[in-house]
Amino acid sequence: MTVLIVEDERTLARELGIFLYQQGLACTVARTAREARAQLADSPFDFVLLDLGLPDGDGMALLAEAKQQELAAAVIILTARGAVEDRIRGLELGADDYLAKPFSLPELLARMHAITRRRFGLHKPRVAVGAFELDVQARRVLFGDQEVPLSVKEFDVLSYLVLHKNRVLTRLQLTEHIWGNLPESGFDSNYIDAHIKNLRKKLGQHADVEWLETVRGIGYRVRG
């Protein structure tokens, strides 16, 4: 998943970025509202972690503006403001959750997992696909009781396709989800093709993977 961290406190932004990167997430940092607007206009994100006290504006105004422009990302407000009124206003503007500083990084991750499950209608952390089960939270793919060893990026590609089951995703969409705003540094669809090839090989050693389809000239789809 891709995450935009909107936070002007450098130490916290760095800690968030390192922690989430270790969980397999691609992170971009914006330290001002102006930088955040530019990033949101330029790239799709799965999550926005939004500080309210920005040096060039209020995070609430940025949230309202982004939602008016039909921001698809989930938003978690991270702020030192603890007043109930601020929490209510943030949620009414479209935020998905609210964490008051200081907060626990594992709790933030757990809330992100919970939001992901809600958004994709998952009532359990495991999702069945073909003869396999995908554990979104533990980042594992299981065939019965046996774990299928996948690389971080292979799991990211597979999980994104599974969460968007029956929807065709282009190579560019998959690339932006896994690596962030990669096209600026040179988009190569072979990144995705290579991971799909590896997934078919690894999963195919256990069971049929016809549900992982190539849509010629467009991208890939998990049929279910």
Provide an overview of this structure.
It is a single chain. The chain is of the alpha/beta class and 224 residues long. Helix content is 43%, strand content 23%. The strands form four sheets. Strands 2-1-3-6-7 form a five-stranded parallel β-sheet, sandwiched between helices. Strands 8-9-10-11 form a four-stranded antiparallel β-sheet, with helices on one face. Strands 12-14-13 form a three-stranded antiparallel β-sheet. Helix 6 packs across helix 9 (190-204). The longest helix is centred in the middle third of the chain and has 15 residues, at 105-119.
Broad CATH class of the largest domain: Alpha Beta
Number of discrete helical segments: 9
> Can you tell me the CATH topology of the largest domain?
Rossmann fold
As for the number of domains, it is 2
**Overall mean pLDDT score?**
89
The proportion of strand residues reads 15-25%
Shape: elongated
Helix content: 40-55%
Provide the gyration radius in Å: 18 Å
CATH structural architecture of the largest domain:
3-Layer(aba) Sandwich
Low-confidence segments, given as residue ranges, are none
Strand order within the widest sheet? Answer: 2-1-3-6-7
Q: What name goes with the CATH superfamily of the largest domain?
A: Response regulator
Count of DSSP strands: 14
Helix/strand/pairing class, anyone? alpha/beta
Largest sheet: 5 strands, parallel
Topology pattern, helix = H, strand = E? EHEHEEEHEHEHEEEEHEHHHEE
Distance, first to last CA: 22 Å
